[in-house]
Design goal:
Blueprint (H helix, E strand, L loop, with lengths): L1 E3 L5 E6 L3 H13 L1 H6 L2 E7 L3 E3 L4 H6 L8 E3 H4 L4 E11 L4 E6 H6 L4 E4 L2 E4 L3 E3 L7 H4 E2 L4 H20 L3 H7 L1 E5 L3 H17 L12 E5 L11 H13 L2 E4 L4 E3 L4 E4 L4 E3 L2 E4 L3 E3 L16 E2 L12 E3 L4 E2 L22 H20 L12 E5 L5 E5 L2 E4 L1 H14 L3 H16 L15 H15 L1
Parallel strand pairs: 1-8, 2-3, 2-9, 3-6, 9-21, 11-18, 12-13, 12-18, 13-14, 20-22
Antiparallel strand pairs: 4-5, 6-7, 7-8, 10-19, 15-16, 16-17, 23-24, 24-25
Helix pairs in contact: 1-11, 7-8
């Protein structure tokens, strides 16, 4: 195991290249520009992927409104003053200020992991999908948290239309045209709405499929969807989806999905070839291996200044952190805990700014400040030209909410380069027809060559 260290450099290790990790490193580049240039400070960003995924754009990428490459932000391009390491942190010994990282090179050469010494630690690994022990889920479920999953789901849905169009078996056709989404949060509702919109448009090019032939089912265990936009807008979203012949099932759970049959808690059974699981997330497993203080949900206990509670030189924010919400009503009694900031993108982006400011102040010996931000509200897309929003007390629906959704996220996506490209794609999409091509073969690009090579060997042998 190799060790990377340096004695005269203040080394800041950022674990995770998502919202918090990338935005924190981006601001540290500006705040510590002189120190980074002089070599007295080094910022290391570690993530398994060389890019940050702007997850609010995943539904539009799945629907073909945005190119997949414009949903991601390359870390090396936006963080030229930082050292980007593509790998996974597998262990952290904060007492000795060392992290163990498994890199791609280590996997290829078998040299083992590397150890990186650090002075300040920023833990921002984000979250991972929370899969429940539902029979058959691991075999047939499709996630919706990465750009690869979004594009894979798009190709899959279009592929099911091709299957339904070409089969004479009514059972196969019915299963191919049944799409079940589990989870009524942002990811599930927006993904279903955008893909249903795309599929409804696509079937006009199939001579033997009508929009009413498709079954789109949303399964939610609670009595409401999109809780972030409020009860009234949540009820409107249900009405809007049902008006599009989408079957919204509230207070219903997925009991089983074995043999491609979705069995629901209300007794319904749906043969389906498409089951999308978006029923929540959980903290990244690395947090449990750090020996740092966690709350009951596995998130790091943090102070309002975004420091890990009771631990020096350790910081966190976003999904990984349980940060007290200073703008919420104070607890009723001394034994009652203070409300926490919601683990969403809005808080993550703002927390990363305060985290970077405090970290720069700690490096330079200045004062640190607490994070306090009142929740501004939420916006959600329900497909092209449809949406709901509850922002600063104002409730919007339909086209105004959809337009606000696009404007808000365009303003939040990092870098002017990405903003310009996304805006250009939206403009072109308004002038031309949708692209409805499935490129499922991209998921196995060597299949054609392997087939050709195998045929060639067979011919030679014969």
């Amino acid at each position: 195991m190799k060790t990377e260290s340096s004695e005269d450099v203040t080394r800041i290790l950022v674990v995770g290249g998502g919202y918090v990790g990338m935005y924190t490193a981006l601001r540290l580049q500006r705040k510590l520009k002189q120190e980074l240039r002089q070599g007295t400070v080094e910022v290391i960003v570690v993530d398994p992927e060389p890019y940050m995924t702007y997850q609010p754009f995943l539904p539009e990428a799945a629907a073909g409104s945005i190119s997949p490459r414009h949903v991601v932000v390359p870390l090396r391009r936006v963080l030229p003053q930082c050292k980007v390491v593509i790998g996974e942190v597998t262990a952290i010994d904060h007492e000795d200020r060392r992290a163990t990282i498994t890199t791609l090179a280590a996997e290829e050469t078998g040299d083992g992991a590397i150890e990186v010494a650090y002075d300040e630690l920023v833990l921002a690994p984000g979250s991972v999908s929370r899969a429940l022990p539902v029979p058959g889920l691991a075999d047939v479920g499709i996630g919706f948290k990465t750009v690869e999953e979004a594009i894979g789901l798009r190709n899959h849905v279009l592929g099911q239309l091709d299957i339904a169009s070409s089969t004479r078996d009514p059972a196969v056709r019915d299963a191919a045209l049944t799409f079940v989404f589990v989870g009524g949060g942002y990811a599930g509702v927006e993904a279903l709405a955008e893909l249903e919109d795309m599929a409804r448009y696509a079937v006009r090019y199939y001579h033997n499929i009508q929009p009413e032939d498709m079954k789109w089912i949303l399964v939610e265990a609670t009595n409401r969807i999109l809780p972030e936009v409020g009860p009234e807008m949540g009820r409107y979203a249900v009405r809007e989806l049902r008006a599009r012949n989408i079957d919204v099932r509230l207070e219903t759970r997925l009991d089983s999905c074995e043999k491609h049959v979705a069995q629901l808690s209300d007794g319904s059974r749906f043969p389906t070839r498409t089951l999308v699981w978006t029923a929540g997330v959980k903290p990244h497993p690395i947090l449990a291996a750090t020996k740092l203080p966690l709350n009951g949900h596995g998130r790091l206990l943090c102070t309002p200044a975004l420091q890990v509670d009771g631990v020096e030189h350790a910081w966190s924010a976003g999904d990984a952190a349980a940060v007290p919400d200073l703008t919420a009503e104070p607890p009723a009694g001394p034994d009652q805990p203070r409300a926490l900031c919601a683990p969403n993108a809005q808080h993550a982006v703002r927390q990363s700014k305060v985290l970077a400011e405090n970290l720069a102040a700690a490096v330079r010996g200045g004062p640190i400040v607490d994070y306090a931000h009142s929740y501004a509200g939420s916006v959600a897309s329900l497909g092209l030209h449809k949406g709901v929003a509850h922002v600063y007390g104002r409730k919007l629906k339909g086209y105004p909410a959809w337009f606000m959704h696009r404007v808000y996220h365009l303003s939040r996506v990092p870098t002017f380069n990405r903003k310009a490209r996304v805006l250009a794609e939206w403009t072109l999409a308004g002038l031309f027809k949708r692209e409805i091509v499935s490129l499922g073969s991209l998921e196995n690009p060597r299949a054609e060559f392997e087939l050709a090579a195998g045929t060639g060997r067979h011919n030679e042998a014969s």
